[in-house]
């Protein structure tokens, strides 16, 4: 392609849940071609080693407790870099379209006429429970699974969390980033009628070597989380399937 | 390890949604070590090329219209092969724990005392919509996403599908393998009050080159599916996010 100016493009790549081996083959390929990688807090930084040494690496995740780079700034960077002819990888924890604001990034790229491709990833909503020995669905225990964002956007009143509906489900509920709001998640579910005996698992840094799991019920999980001093990022799993962990906990028991 | 008998084990590997590049690095590694691979209908057979030439390949998927090898037979094969000291890969379409009956396979292995590891995969419930330009969650349009199995086990009366709850959701619904029951899915949702103007997308063979998408509303999707002669395997997406496809449909428009 000597002498021909390249057409820039953006790959919205799911980094997977944490274990760097859970990146997809396509995600690795994209990183290997990258001129610049924009990554955030939840994408395992070990994945950056797939990018060429000279590729630029830009952190666009949270800066401190609760402080994030504004989404508009990230969107603008993606558009600008692609327009300069660069191969841009936007590396996002889990899957780009599961609570990753990847939809908004794709909209910004489409609106600007920038070529983009979505590379789905393994979501922590499924993989963190799996590494804790919990299948999110099960033929006799859970015929549905619902993913909920644990930190709800305060200006989203119309689609505010649907507690009566969530509480009445017989299926599994998975709250991503649910640690900060755990007390209100629990009190809403109990308040709307979910039995306080319902099993709950909290999985911190799921699929990483540092994975830690705390199990309880809606009645005692807030206290147990405090005793264990569990911090974000933590996935919250609510439902009967949590009971399978006792038998299926392969990862934390591995030799 | 000459002279030492190996300890057999089973890897329950998510094959991903269809695009062979959406296999994980860990999934590829497991296949490369396999003595035997048990695969089914939804796992892309192209992935078998990662296994050594001498590895045995056993198809345990459906034999004809609606006929499957009994789950118990598959469970027994997994246990027997591992007990013979083999490295067994159970390659399952999508993710092993999202409607894959992987939970039951893990239970059988745990009960038999066989070493196993779960390798999560990219689920078609997220990736097929993503390749059709549909983010399953969106900050302003859908704060939850629910996965539902489209062919419900008839003997599961207690956890029978929760139509009133599903119909009242403002979030996205994704029915995996929903094609055969599309008319009853649609009539249940409308019957329980979901507006007939709700957008619906049907995505056949999502993420494969053969991907095909039909878009409509609850009011007309059954007729459109018949006109398009759409067959399984098809993912059904219900919710406002389907509208984003018009802008974000990158895969079917790619050069």
What would your notes on this structure say?
Two copies of one chain form a homodimer. The first copy, chain A, is α/β, with parallel strands linked by helices and 255 residues long. Chain A has two domains: 9-119, Cobalt-precorrin-4 Transmethylase, domain 1, CATH 3.40.1010.10; 124-248, Methyltransferase, Cobalt-precorrin-4 Transmethylase, Domain 2, CATH 3.30.950. In chain A, 26% of the residues lie in helices and 22% in strands. Chain A has eight helices and twelve strands. The first copy, chain A, has helices at 25-32, 71-83, 102-111, 124-131, 163-168, 182-191, 221-227, 245-248; strands at residues 9-14, 36-39, 56-59, 62-64, 67-68, 87-92, 116-119, 144-149, 172-176, 199-204, 212-217, 234-238. In chain A, the strands form three sheets. Chain A has a five-stranded parallel β-sheet with strand order 3-2-6-1-7, with helices on both faces. A five-stranded mixed β-sheet of chain A has the order 8-9-12-10-11, sandwiched between helices. A two-stranded antiparallel sheet of chain A has the order 4-5. In chain A, helix 2 crosses helix 3. The longest helix of chain A has 13 residues, at 71-83. Chain A is elongated and about 60 Å long. At the A-B interface, helix 1, helix 3, strand 7, helix 4 and strand 8 of A face helix 1, helix 3, strand 7, helix 4 and strand 8 of B.
């Amino acid at each position: 392609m000597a002498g021909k100016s390249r057409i820039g493009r953006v790959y919205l790549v799911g980094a997977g849940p944490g274990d760097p081996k859970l990146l997809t083959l396509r995600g690795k390929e994209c990183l290997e071609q990258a001129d610049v990688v924009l990554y955030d807090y939840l994408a395992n930084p070990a994945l950056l080693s797939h990018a060429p040494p000279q590729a630029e690496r830009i952190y666009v995740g949270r800066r401190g407790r609760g402080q994030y780079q504004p989404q508009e700034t990230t969107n603008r960077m993606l558009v600008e870099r692609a327009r300069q002819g660069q191969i841009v990888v936007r590396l996002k924890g889990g899957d780009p379209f599961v609570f990753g604001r990847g939809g908004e990034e794709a909209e910004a790229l489409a609106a600007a006429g920038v070529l983009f491709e979505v590379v789905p990833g393994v979501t922590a909503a499924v993989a963190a429970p799996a590494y804790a020995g919990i299948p999110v669905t099960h033929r006799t225990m859970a015929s549905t699974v619902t993913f909920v964002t644990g930190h709800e956007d305060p200006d989203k009143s119309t689609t505010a969390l649907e507690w009566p509906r969530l509480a009445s489900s017989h299926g599994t509920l998975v709250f991503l980033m649910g640690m900060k709001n755990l007390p209100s998640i629990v009190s809403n579910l109990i308040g709307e009628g979910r039995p306080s005996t319902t099993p709950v698992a909290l999985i911190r840094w799921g699929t990483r070597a540092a994975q830690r799991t705390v199990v309880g019920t809606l009645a005692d999980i807030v206290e147990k989380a405090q005793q264990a001093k569990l911090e974000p990022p933590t996935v919250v799993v609510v439902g009967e399937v949590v009971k399978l962990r006792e038998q299926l906990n392969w990862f934390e028991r591995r030799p």
